[in-house]
Amino acid sequence: MKEAKNLIDKWHEVLGSDDPKLLENIISEDAVFSSPVVFTPMEGKNITMMYLHAAGQSFNMEKFKYTKEIHDGMNSVLEFETYIDDISVNGVDIIEWNEDGKICNFKVMISLLKLFKKFKKK
Question: What is the pTM of this model?
Answer without folding.
Answer: 0.87
